[in-house]
């Protein structure tokens, strides 16, 4: 009798058996659901593919997802542009490159209306000279320089405020084999604005002539810095002209130059240069004035928001600074505990104000072998499971009625506490960094132990395969036995096309890991507002 029941009952299907026609096989051999094309596109924009996954190399994963992105750009160009702009405006992604690549694909491969929309959106995406030059490198791979391309690039150069354009000329001279001179020669922007033409001439020929204005002081100061005799002279020019450190020749970038840069730059620069400030002897134990200045800047919520600092940027800075050595051999230093604490505070601040849903949460963090491979957003040391744990702490700290557990092929108490530092969280994760993947375990464990939960949140790469019960059936069984209309939120930590969430169940939601809007959406969904 039991054998016959097992054969015909869908809820008894193992994760390696197909239960429904709309299920697909994931990279690990388990059956899950394919996310919608729009969700998959969003995952690419926010997570990218740097670092690959346990089951797919970075090259293979990138090739697969970029093929999908180009197909989506051709077929859904206008919607793609809207999604790209939303991600950019809301600072939802850690890196701009995936969005720039996707926008370039629409600009070159979409229908006429979509291509025009893409070029109109480029000024929103090209917030820095680096972004523009990266976009050009991507666009070149999709086609040549037609009329729309020339006009689109010219419009960026003609629309950028003159002070910003002058800064681009000094700070972002070349990227990815492209220079502003290359772009200007191909785009031929035309204007009667003498100041703008003066900047264009400097970009092409390296000389500033025919104009003098406060907006051009950064170029004037840069030309003087090229002739500076010492570190002190260069530092004086930085203060006098408001120069970025890139305006100073590399051989003059010593302690005094970095001290001036700390005064003339904001929080983004500070995050990226904690190692350099330490290496030159400015940021160290006992340098209380510098420590105070740095920590206040890092924990200034309005500055973080204005600087469009993403939580991953902070986490990357924390991992590198705490390690006491540069990723690419950029010297060694001793981390200052107060700075480490400030970085942890900045990580949570970068998500913005998160309101509690005041529901009962069970957070399940996938700590299986597949989650320990690859990296999130290409950040060394930021594996998907460490990133998942860090992200889960946002909810764990916000919701008073919550429990956080880890799972592989078994369910384990990670002994996480709401006040744990990210360092402690990381170490606890590393103790459970192995095993097969069974994403049904959070619901099965809660059912078996009669744990009351309104919301299950599973942080995973969706490569589930090891269990005897599929996750959607485990949730339905929990709802039935506990009499609770529990919801399931699946937070995908890699840019694959898979999800354990049933797209036909209104009580299940797919989210993209490290989307800055994720905590807010989770709260609204948990509270029944979505």
Account of the 3D structure:
Helix 2 runs parallel beside helix 4 (77-89). Helix content is 51%, strand content 8%. The longest helix has 18 residues, at 58-75. The protein has helices at residues 2-8, 37-47, 58-75, 77-89, 97-109, 112-125, 129-142, 147-159, 162-171, 180-187, 194-205, 217-225, 231-241, 255-264, 267-272, 274-279, 288-298, 301-306, 311-323, 337-349, 384-398, 422-430, 441-448, 471-482, 518-526, and strands at 23-25, 31-34, 174-175, 178-179, 361-366, 402-407, 411-412, 455-460, 487-492, 498-499, 508-512. Strands 7-6-5-8-9-11 form a six-stranded mixed β-sheet. It has a three-stranded antiparallel β-sheet with strand order 1-2-10, with no helix packed on it. Among the domains are: 2-34 and 352-526, von Willebrand factor, type A domain (Rossmann fold, 3-Layer(aba) Sandwich), CATH 3.40.50; 212-263, no CATH class; 266-350. The protein is built from 25 helices and eleven strands. It has 530 residues and is an alpha/beta fold. Mean pLDDT is 84; it is low at 1-10 and 50-58. Strand 8, helix 24 and strand 9 (487-492) form a beta-alpha-beta unit. The radius of gyration is 25 Å and the shape is globular. Residues 24-359 form the TROVE domain. It is found in: Cytoplasm. This is TROVE domain-containing protein. Belongs to the Ro 60 kDa family. Keywords: Cytoplasm, Metal-binding, Ribonucleoprotein, RNA-binding.
